[in-house]
Amino acid sequence: MQQYQPSPSTGLQPDQPGLPPCDDAAAAGLIRALAVAGMRHPRCALPLYERALQRAQDLPLLRRVQLLQGLFFSSERLGRAAPLRPALHQALAEAQDAGLIRQVTRLHEALGRLSYQAAEYQQASAHWSEALDLATLQPGSLEGVAPCIGLAQLHFALGDWQTGQHLLLDAQSQLRIGAPQLAARYLQAKLLINLGVAQFNRSEFAQARTSFEQGQRWARSIGHRDYVAESQWHLARCAQASGEESAARQLCEQALQSARRCGYVWLEAMASATLTELAMEGKDWDHAIQSGEQALALARSLGARRQQSSAHKALAQLYQHAGRLSEALDQLWQHQALEAELYRLSLPERLSALVRFDHLRQGPEERMLALSNQHFSVETPEDLRLALLQMREQVLAIMGLDDWTVWWDEGSQQRFVSIAQAGKPEDLGLDAEHCGDYLQMLADTQEPLVIRDMRLHPHGALLLHRPRAQSKGGRIEVPLRLQQQLRGILWLQRESMDRAWTREDLLSASHLAKICERLLLSLDLTRAKAARQELEQEKFASLGRMVASIAHDVNTPIGVAITAASGVADHARRLGRVADGSEKLTRSELQALAAQLSNAADLVDRNLQRAATLMGDFKRIAVDQNAEAPQRLALKDYLQSVLSVHSPALRRARVDCRLEVEDSLQVQTVPGLLSQILSNLIMNSLTHAFPEGQGGCLSLRAQACGPQLRIDYADNGVGLSEAARTHVFEPFFTTRRGQGGSGLGMYIVANLAKRLGGQALLMRPDRGFALRLELPLQGMPASGDGR
Fold first, then answer.
1. Res. 744: pLDDT tops 70
2. What is the largest distance, in Å, between two alpha-carbon atoms of the chain?
3. Cβ distance 706 to 776 under 8 Å?
4. Is the confidence at residue 2, as pLDDT, over 80?
5. Which residues contact residue 407 at a Cβ distance below 8 angstroms, ignoring those fewer than 6 apart?
């Protein structure tokens, strides 16, 4: 085995002088002492292991491998084990050559843990399966317990809690309860904690709490502070699941502090993630963001992909809530990339970890893996349809299906259309009006729905006339979710009732659902990125239109002021001639000249005041659009400023405005967002409501209704068709495609209303267009509710 290279943090160098040689007997005693020290104080044991390895070059291979295993055990708990992987592989090769079966078993177990932490589930399964096979050749030993626990953890990571629990019970049968050995007590603590995890995820919270408490007692009996702290964190999760929020937060804080004291970085990351969840549940957004960022940093230091993915997802939701849209989108991209990588790494050997593989035949899971590894560029709905069509025949063959369909809610309006039929107006979809109970059933379920006989489907009669529906046979229905919202439905259909749905079918359905969710998320993110760019362009374009309009209107008073000022100058020069005697005026002529001067000066003053008012209103609105701090406003004055900025465009379109607001009405809101909403509504009316310059009227009415501010906006233009009403809040929907319409005006209105903590509601007036804004009267929710 090549000489171990110490980490720079220890200060040791390979050729450091003054380290006396170490013989085999002394090494054996040292290894036993370090095992006890490493169990209780890994941070103190770590430099001792590194120093011992520097003295081990003349020792037998057995002792060198034992020291390396001890170094790994201490390093792993401190989050520093990843750099040891090359040394462990080298030691494994040499131990295999030397026939050291126990050390080979333990090295496989250690490498399995490193692979599992990096979410490399195929390698983890291979190492732990090999360790378990070797353990069967060592009857009476405890070597099979740790790899059996590892394989259980692998099943947990893949969502198969039942099989994982059975593996733990197998491991428990290998332990002699109450055995005096340090290793047995350590394994008993580890096993009970993992058994509690299985019970917790099967919602057996009382049993889980008992297992965690028992595991904590075993950990205390050997001074294993890491497992004591980890049990504390699991007990916090039990309290959280039972609705004991205060106890959960207290236990989790204690676990986090204990993890920091003993340097247990993995637990620091997990406890920080749980504190993020608790803070989100308590709407403590600042604390949630702080804990979430800490959890992400710790997960990155460990190289733990699954924890990183979860942290990115939580931060995406938190940044979205705080209105930090660019950062939220970036977190979501990183979450998607990690999920894709995790899915690719996790699919092989999902449930065959304990058996040997038949490499001559590919099963459904290997074929599904090959399908998931195909790259599909999905930037448009047509790309999505083509990707699903390319997958179609493979899925039918892998699962033995007669048909499969994906329903998609493209506009998040609870209207699902079969993607294969998308774009055809005659397509009968699944919408909340006609299929509300069915959609609610899917939204409430967390597992695939298995219908073995379509005649017994609770909503079979309702769904029978939908495209690609069946009247007989069986179907698996899987809800597809993005950001916890139902955005799609996967139907997998068999016409024959001779073949029942199996457990493998359900797993394949779950795999396929993940692939579909990835494709939908990829499209959503691409469109969100495009929408963000369009929003910025629209914002600047709107500001540009305002500048042009204001510049036109300001020119008139300034031109009048310049002309009047020229008259003042002429009158002043005449007075100068009178003063030096070159011209004489009668008393009446002098009085007339004074009146002319006064009138001209008044004209200059009034027109400059008018120009200043216009520029002040414009400056106020323009500056507000770039500021998002809540302010207290006299609403009527502010709305008048917004209308004043748009008055030139309104006059040119021959559109009158009516403003009905009480003078005393005060609101606490973000003025920039409110002005953007109103500007988009006004420009939308000018663009769509009054074709061919026919002119008209728009009204703006605001009033306080309890804790809410209600703003009613209306115009008496051409109004909206029923088809347009259905899609009016969708991004890029416009009735003037190719005529200057971006399709973002009303989408912006709806999203900005949400960011203000309210909503935009489409009304049904007798004529024209009407929209109601319902906003908080005294400020938006903490941190906003931005999308």
1. no
2. 132
3. no
4. no
5. 416, 417, 418, 419, 429, 430, 488, 489, 490, 491
Residue 74: both structure tokens together = 């201490």
Q: In this predicted structure, what is the pLDDT of residue 362?
A: 57
Is the pLDDT at 361 greater than 50, yes or no? no
Token code pair at residue 402:
């007669």
Cα–Cα distance, 614 to 630 (Å, whole number): 24
> CB of 488 within 8 A of CB of 406?
yes
Give the position of tokens 């009735």.
735
Element counts in the chain: helices (H) and strands (E): 26, 13
pLDDT at residue number 355: 38
Q: What angle do CA 374, 377, 381 make, to 5 degrees?
A: 120
Which pLDDT belongs to residue 268?
92
Radius of gyration of the chain (CA): 36
Q: What tens digit of pLDDT does each residue of 390-400 get?
A: 888 888 888 88
Q: Taking a C-beta distance cutoff of 8 angstroms, is the pair 700, 773 a contact?
A: no
- Distance of alpha carbon 349 from alpha carbon 160, whole angstroms: 13
Specify the pTM. Answer: 0.48
Q: Look at residue 709 in the predicted model and tell me its pLDDT.
A: 93
For residue 403, which phi and psi values (nearest 5 degrees)? -165, 155
Question: DSSP letter at 335?
Answer: H
Task: Please provide the average confidence, as pLDDT, over all residues in the chain.
Answer: 80
Angle between helical axes of 85-98 and 101-117 (0-180°, round to 10): 160
Query: Do residues 468 and 404 lie in contact, with contact meaning Cβ atoms separated by under 8 Å?
Result: no
Q: For residue 698, with 0-12 CB atoms within 10 Å meaning exposed, 13-18 middle and 19 or more buried, which class applies?
A: buried
341 vs 372: CA distance, rounded Å? 10
The phi-psi region of residue 131 (left if phi > 0; otherwise alpha if psi is between -120 and 50; otherwise beta) is alpha
CA distance 531 to 539: 12
Lowest mean pLDDT among 85-94, 233-242, 452-461, 608-617: 608-617
Residue 218 · residue 230 · CB < 8 Å: no
- Cα–Cα distance measured from residue 190 to residue 219, given in angstroms and rounded to the nearest whole number: 8
Query: Is 384 in contact with 378 (CB distance < 8 Å)?
Result: yes
Determine which helix (DSSP H) or strand (DSSP E) holds 634, and give its type and residue range.
strand 631-634
Angle value at C-alpha 530, between 525 and 531, nearest 5 degrees: 95
Amino acid identity for residue 624 in this structure: D
Residue 30 confidence class, pLDDT cut points 50, 70, 90? confident
Range with lowest mean pLDDT among 114-118, 297-301, 447-451, 537-541: 537-541
Instruction: Note the pLDDT of residue 346.
Output: 57
% residues pLDDT > 90 (the chain): 20
450: left (phi over 0), alpha (psi -120 to 50) or beta: beta
Instruction: Give residue 379's Cα distance to chain centre.
Output: 19
Kind of pairing between the strands at 696-705 and 759-762: unpaired
Contact 594, 636 (CB under 8 A): no
The Cα 246–Cα 574 span in angstroms is 87
